[in-house]
Design a protein that fits this description.
alpha/beta, single chain, about 20% strand, Leucine Aminopeptidase, subunit E, domain 1, globular
Length: about 180
Amino acid sequence: MEIKIDDSTLSLLRGDITQEETEAIVNAANSALAGGGGVDGAIHRAGGPKIMEECRRIGGCPTGQAVITTGGNLKARYVIHTVGPIYRDGKSGEPELLASAYRNSLKIAVEKGVQSISFPSISTGAYGYPINEAAGIALGSAIDFIKTHRNPKLIRFVLFSDRDLKAYEEALKGMGIVES
C-alpha cells in the first residue's frame, strides 16, 4: 500500500528491513545500543561489526530518542537507532515515547539530508506494544512529520509479518487517508 502526502510517499510492505535500499533504515534498539534479538539482532548481523563499533562509541540512547551510525555492510548508508518504550499498560507515557522515537528518527534523517527511510514496527516485538495501537502512532507520527517538514520524500514501513502489515493497512484506512 502506498499513499502520497504532499510531495512525499508513505508506503507499507511486508519484508526484511536488512534488505532495504533506502538511504537509511531504522533499528528498534535497546537503550544500551548493545545489540539484541529481533530487528536489532538482524540489523547487527547483516550490517557487520562497524555498526557495533559506532554504537559502543556513542554509548547509549534514552527511550524516545535516536542516534545514527554507518550502515556497515547493509545496502542502506545509515542506520538510525531508536529506543521505543517497553509496554506496561498504555498509561505510563508509552504512546508519547513511541511517537517521540519515530519523530526523532525522522529529525536525524532530515538533518543528514536523507530522502528515503525504512522503519520496522518499533516496540511491537519483545517490548510488547500492541500492534494495532503502535501502527496508528507510527503512521500518525510519520504523516505529521511529512506535513510539517516536507521531507523525507519516502517513508517506508517494512513489516515482518502479514499480521503486522494488515494492522498497519487497517490503521492507515482508519485515518481516512485511503479508501477502505
